[in-house]
Amino acid sequence: MTPKINFITVAVEDMQESIEFYQQVFNFKIAEQSEDLCLFDMENGFYFVIQTKADFLQQRDNQNPAERSSGFILSCSLDSTEQVDMLVSRAEKMGAVQVKKLNEEWGYSVVIKDINGHHWEIVHLTQSN
């Protein structure tokens, strides 16, 4: 048996505001939704999940509600630098903050912090990668 990752779940402060953010910025489509959980279907049995912070913290050993995310970075790969800039612009209009921008030999990358404090790398890789 080969394990595979089917879900990535992140905690959010405001469920409705977060749903609107991920739909408008990333164009994510809702697969299932409840009061404290929303699954976005990414394809091939993989889901990006947002969960209210109160419920999310019940699953962890550290239940400090003041703790902000940053133990990981989510990456979203796009087909061009223009698409990266357009997505970053949409994210900023929805309240995200740009953290870092790189234009390197391997590609173009902008890291943003979303409205819940999660870091996203929006990247376009050159053809050689």
TrEMBL record:
It comes from the Bacteria. InterPro entries: Glyas_Bleomycin-R_OHBP_Dase, Glyas_Fos-R_dOase_dom, VOC_core. Residues 4-125 form the VOC domain. PROSITE patterns: VOC (PS51819). This is VOC domain-containing protein. It comes from Sphingobacterium hungaricum.
